[in-house]
Amino acid sequence: MRKRVSIGLVAILLASLVLNACGGGAASGYKVGMVTDMGGVDDKSFNASGWKGIEDAIKELGIEGSYLESQQQTDYATNITQYVNQGTNLIITVGYMLADDTANFAKANPDINFAIVDFAYDPPIDNVRALTFATDQASFLAGYAAAAATKTGKVACFGGINIPSVSIFMVGYEAGVKYYNAQHGTDVQVLGWSTAANNGVFVGNFESTDDGRRTGEEFLAEGADVIMAVAGPVGQGTAEAVQVAGNAWFIGVDQDWTLTAPKYTDVILTSVLKNIDVAVFDTIKLASAKDFAGFGGESYVGTLANDGVGLADVADGAIPSEIVDELEDVRKGIIDGTIDSGWETYLSGL
Amino acid sequence: MDRKTAAESNVKAPERALGDEADRVRGRLPRGRRRTRGRLRSLVIPFLAIVTALIIGALVIVFTDETVYAAFGDGVGRGVARASSVITRAYGAFFSGALGNPVRIITALFSGQGTQIRRAIYPLTETIRISTPYIFAGLAVALGFQGGLFNIGAEGQYFVAGLVTVFVGYAVTGLPGIIHLPLALLAGAVGGGIWGAIPGLLKAKTGAHEVINTIMMNYIAFRLAEFMLDANGPMARGDGRPVSPEIQPSAYLPQFFPNQIEIRVNTGFLLALAVAVLVWWLLYKTTLGYEIRTVGANPRAARYAGMSVARTVVITMALSGALAGLSASTDILGVLHFMPNAFSSGYGFDAIALALLGKSHPFGVVLASLLFGALRAGAQNMQGIAQVPVDLTSIVQGLIIVFIAAPEIIRKLYRLRQPVASDELVTVRGWGGA
């Protein structure tokens, strides 16, 4: 009897195969597909942020959008192929790990447009828009706020893996702290990164909240009372450690952590916003416009000026109100170029 | 589904081989008929395990679909209709992603159009491509099981072999393909083999358990890869990313569709099949294989029979590591052409499941690998068409293993008769070790 039931189910499964042959997707409108890296779309970090940009575009521009998650390196090409075969107009790949596959498929499919987050080709590829971010500008502000908020005179930061899109946060952070020291005659120290030594603390992954907690505890033990974690979900462990310790602050990156991780709100000093959603939305808007003539290798750089990067509101009462005003001046200074947020200088010094 | 039938027919082979020897010793006639029936019966459990896992997978899909709940709100009939359409859509995408859509393949073949044919057979090529590294990794763990060793280090051996292969692939220049490619493959096998031999040696010389040591060797391998491929590391490409340089074209495994970047099935698959035959031959037709199996079955008896258990343990682990290494080599030389730091594939861990599912027999492993390849390829398509998360495959894979490892569940569920005791040894012996 039970056997018969399972045979029946198998029959249904096989029938579904044939049924599937009859269903053809009705194509209408502009189609956008996003291929995530291994973090998956719910990483509360850059995959999530990229997907938010597509969701916004679905609502406001009426495009069709979807995403495909990748579990390993070889999945990237598989997922891009799916979108190519589905007749997708714009394929957005999230992260430098997809750079090789994106380049290969872009060259093989010149009539499809691509955008890649966090990677720029040299020389640029005609139908690929590179979406990069001057996050040092925003983390400079975070460093300034951290230096103002610390009571121990030590602030810390660490990264996931030592790659430019991570270390750029740390370079800006340290520069911001140093700028605060110069302005206020203080001597706040930065643990976890030194631009002069070109080295810092990296946990080696973007997954382990355990590593985040441990690293956070170490920094707290060393006397730091503000910690910025540039490691995606790893930071949740750090925020946890900070919350347990009390008397300390956590700085989130990528998205506003008071929204994505509200249970840590009481210890979140601020968040360094890397508005990938803004860049993705901007790219979709550009590419889906009727008179779009191709990217022509043009790239997008998110800055404080175009809201591609930014600083979330600083926690109430964490810093004096005159520092809040100063942050606005520093912001303007970075935008008009009178204040150096550090990354270009760092690169030229390598 | 009918592929499974063939799958299980091989599963009994290890017991059969041992049984035959036992029969010869006892001077009995080979048990022809008895064996065929036994073989058929032994495929019932894996088959039902897969079916049951898929059914539970379907339930997971239904229970996590908001539209189904909404439909049930409108009435039971609506809800059931919605649920079945969700399952049909998901599993339809799943099967057409794993095996291709038969209708589409036939129309494409009749149309005779290259692009259409390629797109129609693409799912099949993906299944085969994904199963290629699975075969090597599965063989690695299966060989260990046969020798009574639990090699949990396949993932680490995979990483080390990847590093060695990719280094030979990009750093050695000016060789013709006919030398460069075998050299790169060999390098991977040797790299993985050494990484596997170390825990083998530790076990043989000090008695340290290989489970612990292979796990620890994994961590060393991961950190080694992280160091070598760090953005500023010695093997980094130098564009700020933690990836190796591209290998020379002379080290590429030949592709079946060289000008199609989306079809990545390559001669690595043929190599995998050949190696599976080789492993079978080694295990069942050579003295060394007999020693491996004897040490696996009963190390004391093996020692009493004059075999060197220590030597066999080291050789088994080295061969196992070499096989795991080839899984990385074929992925790098055939598919990726470089090695990323975030290489984490999970093949080494899935391989344990493959060896269990294939009952540690080389041909069983091949079929299990094709099944896992199909599951993964199908899942990617299911994600694209039916928006079912790829993680569903992990659930289905996990359930299959649970049901294979605990056949009692399936027997209870389907009221199967208890088999004769001799049908149920093997595979778990690796836990105990010598």
Estimate nothing, just give the exact number of structural domains of chain B.
Answer: 1
Seen as an oligomer or otherwise, the chain set is: heterodimer
Quote the beta fraction of chain A: 15-25%
CATH-defined superfamily of the largest domain in chain A: Response regulator
How would you briefly describe this protein structure?
Chain A has 350 residues and is an alpha/beta fold. Chain A is built from twelve helices and 14 strands. Chain A folds into two domains: 27-134 and 278-302, 3-Layer(aba) Sandwich (Rossmann fold), CATH 3.40.50.2300; 135-273 and 310-349, Response regulator (Rossmann fold, 3-Layer(aba) Sandwich).
Give an overview of the whole structure:
The complex is a heterodimer of chains A (350) and B (434). Chain A has 350 residues and is of the alpha/beta class. Chain A has two domains: 27-134 and 278-302, Response regulator (Rossmann fold, 3-Layer(aba) Sandwich), CATH 3.40.50.2300; 135-273 and 310-349, Response regulator (Rossmann fold), CATH 3.40.50. Chain A has helices spanning 2-22, 46-61, 75-85, 99-108, 135-149, 164-184, 209-221, 234-245, 257-260, 276-288, 321-336, 343-349; strands at residues 31-35, 64-68, 90-94, 113-117, 128-133, 154-159, 189-191, 193-194, 199-200, 226-230, 249-254, 268-274, 300-302, 309-311. In chain A, the strands form three sheets. In chain A, strands 2-1-3-4-5-13 form a six-stranded parallel beta sheet, sandwiched between helices. In chain A, strands 7-6-10-11-12-14 form a six-stranded mixed beta sheet, sandwiched between helices. Chain A has a two-stranded antiparallel ribbon with strand order 8-9. In chain A, α2 (46-61) packs parallel to α10 and α5 packs across α6. Residues 12-27 of chain A have low confidence and may be disordered. With 434 residues, chain B is an all-alpha fold. Chain B has one domain (2-427). Chain B has helices at residues 2-9, 13-26, 32-42, 44-63, 66-73, 76-99, 102-111, 114-146, 154-171, 177-206, 210-229, 268-285, 287-297, 299-304, 309-336, 347-357, 362-386, 391-405, 407-414, 429-432. In chain B, α7 (102-111) packs across α8 (114-146) and α10 (177-206) runs antiparallel to α15. The longest helix of chain B has 33 residues, at 114-146. Chain B starts with a helix and ends with a helix.
